[in-house]
Specification:
The complex is a heterodimer of chains A (482) and B (809). Chain A is of the alpha/beta class. Chain A contains 14 helices and 17 strands. In chain A, helix 2 crosses helix 10 and helix 12 (315-327) runs parallel beside helix 13 (346-370). With 809 residues, chain B is mostly helical. Among the domains of chain B are: 3-128, no CATH class; 253-507, no CATH class; 708-806, no CATH class. Chain B is built from 30 helices and four strands. Chain B has helices spanning 38-49, 51-54, 70-74, 92-97, 117-128, 159-171, 181-193, 199-206, 239-250, 253-266, 284-295, 300-309, 318-323, 340-360, 379-388, 469-475, 500-507, 515-528, 549-561, 566-574, 577-580, 587-592, 609-620, 675-679, 698-706, 708-724, 729-741, 747-766, 768-774, 786-800; strands at 411-414, 424-427, 437-438, 452-453. The chains are: A alpha/beta (482), B mainly alpha (809). The interface between A and B is large, with 101 and 124 residues.
């Protein structure tokens, strides 16, 4: 069954929290009548949100996605794309055959010259994958991760490029990939939203990031990602008003539930039942979110492994929180690290950014592996675009401009062929030339691993069947799959 | 693979069930079925299943066959049609869709589209019944339909009711009784001002009449007292009483605020640039202008013209220039490294999308890259529309720096009639020499091979002939001013080239098929919860055809004939009996018409985000009702803007009066919309929003429970209860309930609240510190018992969290 938008909205109203709002309303009411059964116990096992009927389309390979989003656009030349020829050309003019007619960002109108790699590359693991010296910890994962050197995108400025990476197009108003996944598969998290975003800082003056990047577009807003903040309250309005204890809040919600129930005897509005259930969920979130964010119950060796002392908003702490979110059934987790826009001072900033992210990335994957969770998790690492093989002299030391014709990303986890390097760029690393992948292919692949055929997951809006992968060609990147 | 992968619509290998007829059992396949209608039953199937390859898109058309045209379907002098009326077996279309060989059957498997038995059955019967063709309902000029006869001539208040009742008669349904008087006045207060009625207003209208029970929808029917004339009825109430209430509310300065919210969603009004640094840009005077225009009842044709082309009017006034800020409302960027040419193309496309969505109600965006797949808009038309806006000075806007507010020249320093003492800057439209607009292959801004096009409207409509606007003016007497000769207009206009002013006049010519229909359809939605055509953002062939096509056409014709008089239309709608029906849904009606498309009752939508805030502030007594002025900053969670940069942002909440202004004035940060507004589904206003989704989520519950605005409002309301609510607990509970919900509480409701009060009272007596903490929200009245105030704050919070408090019944 495929509903049009108005019907879909209608359905949503009636079934936001469970298979049937009426059923949930009764759960809520039962809790009300016997609050002692509710207080201090685990919430009843009710799935948060159902997905689209008929999904998954095929047997899912993974349960969740953790996207380590390196916002700003990390350089492929100092991480995963080893370019000895570019090193030889260092300082020489960039041959015009590469750049003629190509979109250029900040280097518009400037003489373009080659800028050799600023790091040594070595081979690691049995697979012999190449990593730069900036990433000693990620290098330990050589046999676990699949590197794609031939990723491309459409937009050369940050904001629209983020929008492409998250929604598949630069036009505003389309749902983000996490929202699509929520919509398609629903959520299994009982006390938490199914799509959570965490953001850390460090590196160059951080690029702004818009909440558009995790919004639900034309999908109902309940599918949007929820940002958990490391400062102030982790979730907006999750804290009781001053002077209101948990018991008082409980009593207030009970009274509201009772009054809503009384009213509904008269008006029989299914919306009221949904609202009663929403208040129960809100109360549970109030109870569970602080516990989630309080990592003091983690043993010291785990904290050491990630390199964090507490939930301090660092990438390391967020990696640990990502594992805790994964354990609690959150299906789509995005960790933004916003320091990667290195127009100048590339080397010092790479040192900073890699210093902040390299080890925690290794720790997260290692920790998931030890807990048996890596096999049903997909980890994605990458930014919104790559960087030029050309020199940009913006800071005290050289840097690189935005680049969309080649970038490197990697995948790891369930269904991924570890130890593989896919694709290649030309000698200077300007164009992806072999096994070229587009952001749409990445989207198709992550949906595929979740059991979703990207051609079939659609939502009718303004008379059209919209999809995450849109209308241009998109393919599952089969070679990186087991 | 065929062209199937190349375009905007994708094959979904799922059984598609067509729009509303799947839920509303009144289509031609119902047991007592009316004849098959091409408009209602057949075109939607052809559009969804066939137009992709046999429709408007020339490049991907198969077999040179167009099923979107009469000639393609039924043939003409030169071509034999694929449908032979009355002759099923001779009709090639039929043979193709039932072909035994699945390789040859249409639609082809690789399209992902399939026809089900029901759809094939409809096509079969349509051919058998003579295959009557109808133009697409929205693209041909509307005629004012005759008002139908109805079964009960005493029910209607006006012609709207005759259309509604005639349809119900056909369906064998009866309208619902009128809602009780208290529900009615609450309903119309929210609908016309976005604010609740005071208890005095409720009493003045409903006093002595139906003492509403807890349901609030079971009062004595008001049908008999609301006939247009002569006034009569029980308790001395009459249609005239209702009309007085309506007149009072429509004349309220808050009418403009209420109407503005919907318009600001359409035109994507926001306080920030949207892209990248999301800096503030100066535009709030435009909001004042919109509010003022609705309150002044500016005719919609003038309202349209001044926004699209206020700067081009002869001797344009400051107000008209403020209005021309419409062309500047789009998202802009000066991110380091933006390429001017690329962004000019983005802005150009954004304007065409918005123009099409706001005034035409169609999805022109598709045609940026290719011919529209379903509607008759070739790609070239997209760029011809873009050419109208090619004179808008965007070049200066690239120069804004990383400061906030940023500069987005051209700007003006202005005051507005609503805020005469407040000097503000505002972005305006300045016309410069039009830059050439090319058709961009697949929307690629780097492509330079496409034709350069002149301004023009889509070919499916009557074309603009420059210099002929005098005719329009005769037909539309309220169009402001005569159309001046090209040389006399503002800006460097080129002789013979159509301008934004011509575009506006074309839109507002009386025979325009879309402008009036699209507007009245959205107006209807404001008062009935759903449009007559439910897809407010798409009246093209993929949108839903109206359930009451004659009523929609009648309203559109009335709107134009009234001189585009918005208040006239609003009054017509809210004085109809259809509007005044109870919203209660009977099980039978729920079964029959779950989405209330037949209007056999009122709807009961949740209040819009803005009105939820306004309602709490108004009920608490905190609301500052000043109309107009700069944007305001309510309390907001700390650190919410931490991910903004260039420059970094610290949000400083307003203090004093500005803290308590209505939400229409709330600072609209596109990248980080205020979490309260977001939780209740207000859009970011990056693109046109014709209809907000309505969610019902835990996040929204957390807002009402814990957002300081609502806690402070509850505290203030508690103060009012203690001051004005009477001496006894029961007096106060009753007063609070009446004030917040416009009705008396039932005894069970009283006892639930009393129990909460007693518990919290005894707890706060034991825990005085908690009471003090709770009362920190906002200033305190001096001589109030703090414990009592804290406990009554709990009561007030409970009321503010009720579903009823945020629902318009």
């Amino acid at each position: 069954m495929f509903l049009d938008r108005s019907e879909r909205l209608h359905e949503n109203r009636r079934s936001f929290l469970g298979q049937s709002a009426a059923g949930l309303g009764s759960v809520a009411l039962a809790n009300l009548l016997q609050p002692e059964l509710f207080a201090g116990t685990q919430p009843s096992a009710v799935a948060n949100t159902p997905g689209v009927a008929g999904l998954p389309h095929h047997l899912p390979r993974i349960k969740r996605v953790i996207f380590l989003y390196m916002s700003g656009g990390p350089s492929q030349f100092e991480t995963f794309d080893h370019k000895p020829v570019l090193a030889e050309m260092d300082g020489k003019p960039m041959p015009e055959s590469y750049t003629k007619g190509q979109p250029i960002a900040q280097l518009q109108g400037q003489a373009l010259k080659c800028f050799g790699p600023q790091a040594k590359f070595r081979k690691y693991g049995q697979s012999g994958q190449e990593f730069s010296d900036f990433l000693p910890w990620t290098a330990r994962l050589a046999d676990d991760i699949a590197i794609i050197r031939s990723m491309t995108t459409d937009q050369i400025n940050h904001d629209p490029a983020h929008t492409v990476m998250n929604t598949g197009t630069s036009i505003s108003g389309r749902p983000s990939m996490g929202a699509w996944v929520q919509y398609g598969l629903g959520s299994e998290a009982q006390n938490l939203p199914g799509f959570v975003v965490l953001t850390s800082q460090g590196g160059r003056n951080p690029q702004p990031i818009s909440s558009r990047q995790w919004h639900s577009g034309f999908l109902p807003s309940r599918f949007q990602g929820m940002e958990f903040s490391s400062t102030g309250d982790p979730v907006h309005y999750v804290r009781n008003p001053a002077g209101i204890t948990t018991e008082r809040q409980r009593r207030l919600i009970d009274t509201v539930t009772e009054l809503n129930g009384l009213r509904n005897e008269e008006v029989q509005n299914p919306e009221v039942e949904t609202r009663i259930a929403a208040y129960e969920m809100a109360f549970r979130m109030q109870a569970s979110v602080p516990g989630l964010m309080d990592i003091s119950d983690e043993p010291p060796h785990v904290l050491d492994m990630y390199g964090t002392k507490g939930a301090d908003g660092s990438f390391a702490a967020n990696c640990l929180l990502a594992r805790r979110l994964a354990e609690r059934g959150v299906r789509f987790i995005q960790l933004y690290h916003r320091g990667w826009d290195h127009h100048g001072d590339l080397v010092p900033y790479m040192t900073t950014c890699c210093g902040l992210t390299d080890k925690p990335t290794w720790a997260l994957i290692t920790d998931l592996k030890r807990r048996g969770m890596l096999d049903d998790t997909l980890i994605i690492w990458g930014g919104e675009f790559g960087r030029t093989p050309m020199f940009q002299g913006k800071g005290q030391y050289p840097g690189r401009d935005h680049h969309i014709k080649s970038m490197s990303m990697w995948l790891c986890g369930g269904g991924i062929r570890g130890g593989l390097t896919l694709g290649a760029t030309d000698d200077l690393g300007y164009h992806a030339v072999q096994d070229i992948c587009h952001v749409r292919d990445l989207h198709a692949t992550l949906l595929h691993l979740l059991g979703i055929d990207h051609r079939k997951l659609a939502f009718k809006y303004q008379g059209l069947d919209f999809r995450l992968t849109g209308v241009l060609p998109a393919k599952v990147i089969q070679p990186v799959l087991v | 693979m065929k062209s199937v992968t190349r375009c905007c619509v994708i094959g979904v290998v799922l059984e598609l069930c067509s729009g509303f007829s799947a839920r509303l059992a009144v289509a031609a396949d119902a047991p007592t079925s009316p004849p098959v209608s091409f408009q209602r039953d057949i075109r939607p199937i052809l559009s969804d299943k066939c137009f992709f390859c046999h429709g408007p898109d020339e490049k991907h058309r198969e077999e040179d066959l167009r099923l979107d045209l009469r000639a393609g379907l039924l043939g003409d002098d030169t071509v034999k049609g694929v449908v032979i009326p009355g002759k099923l077996e001779a009709s090639k279309l039929w043979k193709k869709i039932v072909h035994e060989d699945s390789e040859l059957r249409m639609p082809p498997a690789e399209s992902g589209k399939t026809l089900n038995d029901r759809e094939r059955g409809l096509i079969r019967r349509w051919i058998e019944q003579g295959a009557e063709w109808q133009e697409h309902w929205s693209f041909s000029a509307s005629k004012r339909p005759a008002v139908p006869k109805v079964s009960d001539p005493s029910w209607p208040s006006n012609d709207i009711d005759r259309f509604v009742l005639a349809r119900l008669d056909r369906e064998g349904l009866k309208p619902s009784p009128s809602a009780d008087a208290r529900t009615l006045i609450r309903r119309v207060s929210f609908d016309l001002t976005g604010l609740p009625p005071t208890w005095e207003e409720v009493e003045a209208f409903a006093g002595g009449r139906d003492n509403a029970d807890a349901g609030g929808t079971r009062g004595a029917p008001l049908t008999s007292r609301q006939k247009p004339s002569p006034p009569r009825g029980e308790g001395g109430r009459s249609f005239r009483d209702w009309e007085e209430v309506v007149d009072r509310l429509i004349a309220s300065p808050h009418f403009g605020e209420r109407m503005a919210i919907h318009w600001l969603d359409l035109v994507r009004f926001a306080d920030t640039v949207g892209y990248h640094g999301d800096q503030e840009h100066p535009i709030s005077p435009y909001r004042d202008w919109v509010i003022q225009a609705f309150s002044d009842n500016m005719p919609f044709d003038r309202f349209t013209t001044e926004q699209l082309a206020g700067d081009l009017l002869p001797e344009a006034t400051v107000e008209q220039k403020i209005a021309s800020g419409y062309n500047r409302l789009l998202q802009t960027s000066h991110e380091g490294g933006v390429q001017q040419k690329e962004y000019l193309a983005k802005y150009s496309a954004d304007r065409v999308r918005n123009f099409g969505a706001v005034w035409l109600g169609v999805t022109l965006g598709c045609a940026e890259c290719h011919d529209h797949k379903f509607d008759p808009f070739p790609q070239r038309d997209f760029y011809r529309l873009a050419a109208f806006f090619a004179d808008v000075d965007d070049l200066q806007s690239f120069k804004g720096g990383d400061t906030t507010p940023t500069k987005r020249e051209p700007e003006m320093q202005v005051t507005t009639r609503l805020a005469p003492n407040e000097k503000r800057r505002t972005m305006v439209t300045v016309s410069i020499k039009p830059r050439p607009i090319r058709v961009l292959s697949r929307g690629d801004w780097m492509d330079e091979t496409g034709d350069i096009v002149e301004p023009g409207v889509p070919g499916v409509f009557r074309q603009i002939v420059v210099g002929e606007q005098a005719d329009d003016r005769e037909r539309s007497p309220l169009t402001p001013g005569p159309s001046p000769p090209a040389g006399a207009r503002g800006g460097p206009q080129l002789a013979g080239r159509a301008t934004r002013l011509d575009l506006a006049r074309w839109l507002t010519s009386p025979d325009h098929p879309l402008t009036s229909r699209v507007f009245v359809n959205r107006l209807w939605k404001m008062f009935f919860g759903k449009g007559l055509a439910s897809s407010l953002d798409d009246v093209g062939s993929q949108g839903e055809a109206p359930v009451h096509p004659e009523l929609l056409d009648w309203l559109a014709a009335e709107f134009v004939a009234s001189g585009w008089d918005v208040k006239h239309m609003v009054k017509l709608i809210v004085t109809s009996q259809a509007y005044q029906q109870a919203s209660l849904e009977t099980p039978a009606l729920r079964q029959r018409d779950p989405d209330n498309r037949l209007i056999a009752r009122q709807s009961r939508p949740r209040l819009d985000a803005e009105f939820i805030r306004d309602n709490a502030l108004a009920t608490s007594g905190l609301l500052v009702r000043t109309v107009g002025g700069r944007s305001t900053r309510p309390y907001q969670p700390d650190g919410y803007y931490q991910h903004l940069n260039f420059p970094k942002r610290t949000y400083v909440a307003d203090t004093g009066e500005h803290q308590y202004r209505r939400a229409v004035y709330t600072h609209w940060q596109r990248c980080y919309l205020h979490p309260m507004l977001k939780a209740f589904d207000a859009p970011s206003r990056e693109e046109c929003t014709a209809e907000r989704a309505v969610s019902n989520t835990p996040q929204a519950a957390l807002v009402l429970l814990n957002d300081p605005t609502f806690v402070e409002s509850a505290r203030a309301f508690a103060g009012r209860i203690l001051r004005d609510g009477g001496a006894t607990t029961d007096d106060r509970l009753g007063w609070a309930w009446r004030t917040a919900l416009s009705r008396e509480p039932s005894s069970r409701e009283m006892s639930a609240l009393r129990s909460l009060l007693d518990h919290d009272l005894s707890e706060f007596q034991q825990d005085r510190a908690s009471a003090e903490k709770l009362l920190k929200a906002g200033p305190l009245p001096a001589d109030t018992d703090r414990i009592e105030l804290a406990a009554w704050t709990s009561v007030a919070r409970a009321i503010f969290n009720l579903n009823e408090f945020i629902t318009r019944n």
